[in-house]
TrEMBL record:
<dbReference type="InterPro" id="IPR006245">
    <property type="entry name" value="Allophycocyanin_b"/>
</dbReference>
<comment type="similarity">
    <text>Belongs to the phycobiliprotein family.</text>
</comment>
<keyword id="KW-0089">Bile pigment</keyword>
<feature type="modified residue" description="N4-methylasparagine">
    <location>
        <position position="72"/>
    </location>
</feature>
<feature type="binding site" description="covalent">
    <location>
        <position position="82"/>
    </location>
    <ligand>
        <name>(2R,3E)-phycocyanobilin</name>
    </ligand>
</feature>
<dbReference type="Pfam" id="PF00502">
    <property type="entry name" value="Phycobilisome"/>
</dbReference>
<keyword id="KW-0157">Chromophore</keyword>
<dbReference type="InterPro" id="IPR009050">
    <property type="entry name" value="Globin-like_sf"/>
</dbReference>
<dbReference type="InterPro" id="IPR038719">
    <property type="entry name" value="Phycobilisome_asu/bsu_sf"/>
</dbReference>
<keyword id="KW-0813">Transport</keyword>
<protein>
    <submittedName>
        <fullName>Allophycocyanin subunit beta</fullName>
    </submittedName>
</protein>
<keyword id="KW-0042">Antenna complex</keyword>
<keyword id="KW-0249">Electron transport</keyword>
<dbReference type="GO" id="GO:0031676">
    <property type="term" value="C:plasma membrane-derived thylakoid membrane"/>
</dbReference>
<feature type="binding site">
    <location>
        <position position="72"/>
    </location>
    <ligand>
        <name>(2R,3E)-phycocyanobilin</name>
    </ligand>
</feature>
<keyword id="KW-0605">Phycobilisome</keyword>
<dbReference type="GO" id="GO:0030089">
    <property type="term" value="C:phycobilisome"/>
</dbReference>
Amino acid sequence: MRDAVTGLIKNYDVAGRYFDRNAIDSLKSYFLSGTARVQAAAAINSNAAIIVKQAGSQLFDELPELIRPGGNAYTTRRYAACLRDMDYYLRYASYALVAGSMDVLDERVLQGLRETYNSLGVPIGPTVRGIQIMKEIAKEQAAAAGVTDTSFVDEPFDYMTEEFSETDV
Ligand SMILES: CCC1=C(C)/C(=C/C2=NC(=C\c3[nH]c(/C=C4\NC(=O)[C@H](C)[C@H]4CC)c(C)c3CCC(=O)O)/C(CCC(=O)O)=C2C)NC1=O
């Protein structure tokens, strides 16, 4: 698992090169944005239960068939599994924000997930919608915690969405 710094070191070490201008620029921006990233992660952490609950109810309001007989989140067990999955996405998004790298998402969340979902009939489209709803709420929470530009909060949520939406080759 890599963060923005170890990822950069790995790339330059492979080539046996000192950091060049590009590397220094990306290190600068990583460290300059550090406080905001930690602040956003802290806002997510302290509101995680609320974010998941609120995103879940919004998702089921928009797509009530999910929790009706025949829906994938129907029955208490599957409903709970769905909210648990949302909580996983939120928690790993907070790690990726701090790391300044999406590597943790590839390694711990996304690997093999689409296959698992397909085999269990968990619908991808609504899951992606749930992740996007959490993104909006997480951004509101970050803004409320004093993060002025919350655009970087999009990245891990959008990354998971894109990886999820890719079609099988
Ligand atoms: C930390 C990385 C990680 C992830 C991401 C993860 C996901 C994950 N979600 C699962 C199931 C599930 N996931 C859902 C989720 C949903 N159903 C819906 O209709 C909604 C659209 C959606 C919620 C937004 C449901 C309902 C199940 C249970 C499916 C079943 O057993 O029939 C399963 C199958 C095993 C189990 O039930 O625990 C895995 C592995 N597990 C992990 O360890």
